[in-house]
Write a structure and sequence with these properties.
single chain; Rossmann fold; eight-stranded mixed sheet; five-stranded parallel sheet
Amino acid sequence: MEMGNSRLDNLVARIDARDVTIGIVGMGYVGQPLALRFSEVGFRVLGFDIDPVKVNLLNSGRSEIEHIKDEEIEKAVQNGFEATSDMARASEADTLIICVPTPLNKYREPDLSYVISSLEALLPFMRAGQIVSLESTTYPGTTEEEIVTRVEANGFVVGEDIFVVYSPEREDPGNKDFTTRTIPKVVGGHTEACLEVGNALYGSVIDSVTPVSSTKAAEMTKLLENIHRAVNIGLINEMKIVADRMGIDIFEVVDAAATKPFGFTPYYPGPGLGGHCIPIDPFYLTWKAREYGLHTRFIELSGEINRAMPEYVIGKLVKALNERRKALKGSRVLVLGIAYKKNVDDMRESPSVEIMELLRDAGAEVSYSDPHVPVFPRMREHQFELSSVALTQDALAGFDAVIMATDHERFDLDLILSHSQLIIDSRGVYREPSENVVKA
């Protein structure tokens, strides 16, 4: 045990002195900002990713993520940041921070294959004195069941040889008010020693660290954050449908309710849920709760409502076209904004893509315009051979309808309003009544 304490003390001292190499596994929306932050304060950073194209791009000082500037990557490279696909180099790193995707499979069950395959690729090269931190969102018990068991099966004692923590990511791409540094970080350790090391590691780059009693508590914290949003967005989407039927503008109602200085948080409706977190993560708890004989009704109900919103938008379009003596089949429809939220290029789980597929299936001619996504990217489950349409008077007038799916600030709302035949507004950007605007 004495050996464990000395290893702990040595590691904490080296973190304080910026004398450790930070290994980050997964160079995506979470891994890249974290790598930049560790590099910024003087750590040597090694970024692991299985995609050689991404690795070469990063090493040449560029990022494929729009809101991460190339100058930031260039500066990190000058400070010693390096990306690699060679997992054998894990032995060089003192930390292995895992930031890989945790999607759902087609049965809406957790898919931990990226986490497990990453860990198994690292394990042969791990050594005593390393920290393993999982940041991917997952169900309570994952760190214990999947990380700790595999590390200990390789002959290490967790809490003495290897320090295992769970610290959920809280990135919010495009948010100008918060950065990686200023978003408080929750940390849970497998043992007290693990927590101490985790606090030191994240405390060196994050302004405020919140320790919790276990990795399970940290895992549940992240799920609560996302479930809170999913349920409230489901509620407001349901309220939108009721208000619309009653001839009430839900956005006016939310704005009015938001003047209450206590007990109310405004959530706004939209065409569905997007991003990696909100549509997916609540179902991690739903799945795990079954093991305990529990049925998570709120989560599943809000999921049903949110998943139905793209079809609601299409329904409003069909009705509006019908009133203009047009069929959806054969109509030219422009989808405005295909990223999942405003002012970013992140397409993960975007409801806009589902709207495009519903339009295509119904026989409409589909186009899109998104200043953040010039060419429709290759996606695992969706494919369109399309490029972003430039918004001009003539282009807008040539469509039978446009759908405001994601309200990017770079859209010229006056131009769109003046020259579109029909606008299906799923984001409430047009508050004043107009003959060519239909709220959805």
